Amino acid sequence: MPAIVGLISDSHSRWERTKRAIEALQAKGATTFIHCGDVEDDLVLDQLAGLDSHLVWGNCDWNRDSLARYAANIGITVHGDSGEITVDRKRIAFTHGHELPPLRAAVTSGAHYLIHGHTHELRDERNAGTRIINPGALHRAPRYTVATLEPATDKLTIIEVPA
């Protein structure tokens, strides 16, 4: 059975909405989670506790040292400004998206996927063999969205999260 990755970004302290988002992703079979930044507080991180979860920093994550300590204590892997994991032999790079060098590096490195946030807008396009995905946002967006990605089949599903 192919692995399913849950994609989240831009929670901006909205922990209850983040909880609903993770529950929706789990209902679709997600077992690994990537959060593309702007968590802003540990209540959002609590929703990822005990899960195979990966986090990069966003431009609104000011309190990085204390957030990093807290995340490590509850089992979240913090990658800094950019990260990469391999799922079903597919390289998934991720960053927040507010800085161009990590975005360019992911595409030029030949990653199969580049996941980012920051713009609060859904995105799904290809560039030089890399599929670039923004799952949307859980705050300050016309609709709140997250996504699941099945790397083995290249299937992307957008999920709307109730306000």
For the record, the CATH class is: Alpha Beta
The amount of beta strand, in percent, is 25-35%
What's the helix count? 4
Main sheet: strand order: 4-3-2-1-10-11
Any overview of this molecule?
The chain is α/β, with parallel strands linked by helices. It has one domain: Purple Acid Phosphatase, chain A, domain 2 (4-Layer Sandwich). 23% of the residues lie in helices and 31% in strands. It contains four helices and eleven strands, in the order βαβαβαβββαβββββ. It has helices at residues 15-27, 42-46, 64-73, 100-108, and strands spanning 5-8, 32-35, 52-55, 77-78, 82-87, 90-95, 113-115, 123-127, 130-134, 145-150, 155-160. A six-stranded mixed beta sheet has the order 4-3-2-1-10-11, with helices on one face. Strands 5-6-7-9-8 form a five-stranded mixed beta sheet, covered by helices on one side. The longest helix is centred in the N-terminal third of the chain and has 13 residues, at 15-27. The radius of gyration is 14 Å and the shape is globular. The N and C termini lie far apart (32 Å). The relative contact order is 0.22.
